[in-house]
User: Fold this.
Amino acid sequence: MNIILLGPPGAGKGTQAQFLVEALGMVQLSTGDMLRDAKDSGTEMGKLVADVMSRGDLVTDEIVIGLIKEKLDGEKGAGFIFDGFPRTLAQADALGKLLNDCDIKLDSVIEIQVDDKALIKRIVGRSTCGGCGQVYHDETKPWPSDGKCSSCGSTDVKRRADDNEESLKQRLMEYYKKTSPLLGYYFAKGNLVSIDGLLSMNEVRDSLKKVINKE
Ligand code: AMP
Assistant:
């Protein structure tokens, strides 16, 4: 089972991908996480993308396609979850070719639908655990009162540099200009399924599982 999670920043792609990794043993391929890792470890590529990311712009197709290409040769688990990739039509075409070359079938492209006002609220209170990547939110899933992550016990709370209103506006603009055409692209290919991302986290997870189990 190989799926793409599509949706604007803050739709819950990362949170839902984590559920699927834990519940089904799928492998999450998040280009955002890969780029943040490169930035944090100070690689040349990380330095190159740091400013672009903090402004909320997209990094070049060439860089992210290269990152995905490397990972497709690795462990497949129970299938791949593409999270935050593809984000442009060129990336979608490149992914199609890569999957074809590796003999991997794309089963579904799942759009997580949310409205823009809800997105801003979600993103502005967001944090993640530096130990295991668990996602928290000041209102809906606050960091445990003992200060320790409920999954791994780490006390390292991380807030993303681009989770502020200014770069969020730019990230949303990039989404509508460059990524939303992928909805039509995958609809035409017959892969697109849309689910309501405004439901509770557990309800969204159940909708996702239903889509996956039908495959
Ligand atoms: P994300 O964690 O998916 O919200 O990604 C954070 C940032 O990383 C984005 O705002 C972009 O600057 C960059 N990024 C992540 N994935 C891609 C992609 N597929 N194409 C271009 N830029 C990306």
